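Supplementary Data S3. Sequence and structure tokens for construct A.
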Amino acid sequence: MGKAAEARDPAAFVDRDFIVRHLEALVRIPSVNPDLVPGAAGEAETARYLAEVCQTLGMKAKIEMAAPGRPNVIAVLPGADPKRGHSLMINGHTDTVGDAGMEAPFEPRVEGDRLYGRGSNDMKAGLAAMLAAAAAVRASGMRPLGDVILTFVADEEYLSVGTEAVARAYRADAAIITEPSRLRLQITHKGFVWAKIRTEGRAAHGSDFRAGVDAIFHMGRVLAALEHLEKEVLPLREYPLLGRASVHAALIEGGEGLSTYPPSCTLQIERRTLPGETDATARAELEEILAGCARQDPSFRGTVELIGAREPMEVDPNAEIVRVVDAAAETVLGARPEHVGGAGWTDAALLAAAGIPTVIYGPSGTGGHSAVEYVEIPSIVDCAKVLAHTIGAFCGTAGETRREA
């Protein structure tokens, strides 16, 4: 890259003070998800703040309701020639988990290179990096050929209604989610299936062993089969960067009293899934367990109901967005990022399912769901630099012929 090209690289215009100022402002605004903590503030004030900042950056910004009282912010830097360039979506969520056990959760505190406060790491640092990247692009004078679409979404910590709404209404050639990834490039993560298993017995007085059928005993057979699945079967199923699939018993309830045979027992489980596994294959797996219990005991009666599911996510390691972010990090930071997978689920799966190749790339920190949460400020700066460089490389720039990475 020559001197003229270096001068126009928007990564050089990323401003640490801009990042800290806006991150502090975002942390000061409580945006605890009201579905997690009834009566919590939610995302409305944060959405207004982000929309105003994006408008001052010359972006076309608007607030859209993903659900009643749950606002998304959509901010677009229009491309100079969208037919010649690629569009890029950069996504981050505005809600946080609760603040129980925290001291002064919404009073940001900077100590050295760390900024503390609820949401600082998960994931308002990612939002600040998005703003800083857009500001750097504008300050550099670079004009992306394709549209740059910033989506600040509600409700990722519960049902993801925000990104679901975005996936229905918007399209892009690729997307980056700025969840905290420690400047590693996450290209895959697990999904999950939630299921409710119910076993049926027959209520009777505790002394009447001939009439009573114990539904909890029946559930014991199911639990034994699930333990076999977890310890003997699922360890044999592994996927690159993700490791093995898993299942665990989460909640159990049954019985009516000490002197009554329990007529029913309900077990809720979570099954973490790998790419290629679906809610249908998970249901079939559970139904086979129930069928096996019935073969062992003809009096066994059991049913399974799926009560929630989210797909795994993966992107082709050779996809253009992967190659462009790799190259951007190498140019800006001197090394390509490590490619990783994640055990936890993210909104990236919703964008990928909508046909948008999606990766996760964000800052470093810890404590997103704990009593002490902080983010490493230099990592936000580095993240914003990589995002800014990626915008030019992926979307193309006016006056240049767009090159593949």
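Construct B, processed identically:
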Amino acid sequence: MKRIIVLGAGLVGGPMAIDLSGDEGFDVTVADVHEAALAGLIAADAGSSLKTLKVDLSDRGKLSALVADFDLVLNALPGSIGFETLRTVIEAGKDVVDIAFFPEDPFELHELAVEKGVTAVVDCGVAPGMSNLLAAHAVGRLDTPESILIYVGGLPEKREGPWEYKAVFSPADVIEEYTRPARFVENGEVVIRPALSEPELLEFPDIGMLEAFNSDGLRTLADTLDVPDMKEKTLRYPGHIDKVAALRDTGFFSKEPVEVGGVTIVPLEFTSSLLFHDWEMKPGDGDITVMRVVTEGLKDGEGMRITYDLLDHYDRDNDVHSMARTTGYTATMICRFLAGGLYSEKGIVPPEYLGRHEECVEFILKGLQDRGVKYVETVTTP
């Protein structure tokens, strides 16, 4: 039996732990510093074999001791501590599947992972994650790949002002999408564009009009795929860009301390605290995940466009948000793939490496479909 430890019992970590605990071959424990999150998880999965531990996972010493007794680690901690968490797990010599969206370059830990004999699959969410895997899979089907364009967004089912947005993870991590410069590939060269730039409107079936803006979502794709043009854009309901751009340009997202009435505050922390109440998912709030991955190129001398579309909704029967489903179940299927001994490459492994293997893509897509997360493939002539 494989012993798996899930780090983090939040809106994504919790459903991942429950999903894995349903496998007879897994002994699953979830760790978190918040007692309430752990108690809620046990209540949601009453009668299961899931175990919980209250641990301060920001303490690298405690974290190293914790993972020592497990075969596989699933990291669902916030991006702010994600990179150091990954380093600690690798140093402990444990295979790891990671969904933390940290700003650091994961390949900085590649040599360490190889030295420790560790397989560390990073960015295992929906985007980055499935976007990388499907783009690489499509590239492998073309003779001459020419472009990759990714649109993705997590949105509330109900459009309520003023933001028409809800977050299923840390507001600070969401704000990163609005401030971190976006890295693209144009004509074979890496270029930098400001976040929120180059807005455009797109129509999506069953959703309607959405707006897209530049965001830093290519991640490792910019370094691992030889495709002349690659870009990722985030989707929101129309009007959202202007609102958050006004906050950003006024300094509300700054990390530099300022003095207000004799008190020193960090604007980003202050803004995150306020936005948390507006953006927090309340009980019964539903969300949707929209993604489109378009890869174009030549096949047998003819133009080919391979498109993957995803439209996923909140699972009301099991009270699992769509972003938790699309992100979390991607990661749990990769856990199963590793636990089954189906992939053994050591080092830092971004999802596009898995996308090179037909059996891996089929395994993950089948597992997602069994859980109601369905990607629709369309092949056309551009």
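The longest helix spans residues 322-339. The chain has a mean pLDDT of 94.
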